[in-house]
TrEMBL record:
Identification of the protein by name: FAD-binding oxidoreductase
SUPFAM superfamilies xref list: FAD-linked oxidases, C-terminal domain
The keyword Cell inner membrane appears for this protein: no
Gene Ontology MF annotations: catalytic activity; flavin adenine dinucleotide binding
Family matches, as InterPro entries: FAD-bd_oxidored_4_C, FAD-linked_Oxase-like_C, FAD-linked_OxidoTrans_Type4
Signal peptide from the UniProt entry: none
A Pfam short name: FAD-oxidase_C
Length: 76
């Protein structure tokens, strides 16, 4: 978690909040799921691609994303 926070702050993320309890974490996930439903209701053409990456594979996936961005000329 500290490494993720370090990356966020190095990239000038404005605000990072870490859940202080399991209850708070569950509420955030519930809100996130509700948000997509609300977006669909007000914008039926909105497409959501929401995938899950196992934590153990996240470094590999992020490296592939960085390579793809570089090919497009986007420095990450």
């Amino acid at each position: 978690m500290n490494q993720v926070l370090d990356v966020c702050f190095a990239r000038n993320v404005r605000d990072v909040r870490v859940a202080e309890s399991e209850e708070e974490r569950s509420k955030w996930w519930a809100s996130r799921k509700t948000g997509f439903g609300a977006l669909g209701a007000i914008s039926p053409g909105y497409l959501v691609e929401d995938g899950v990456i196992p934590r153990s594979k996240l470094p590999d996936v992020l490296e592939k994303v960085k390579k793809s961005l570089r090919k497009l000329g986007i420095n990450f």
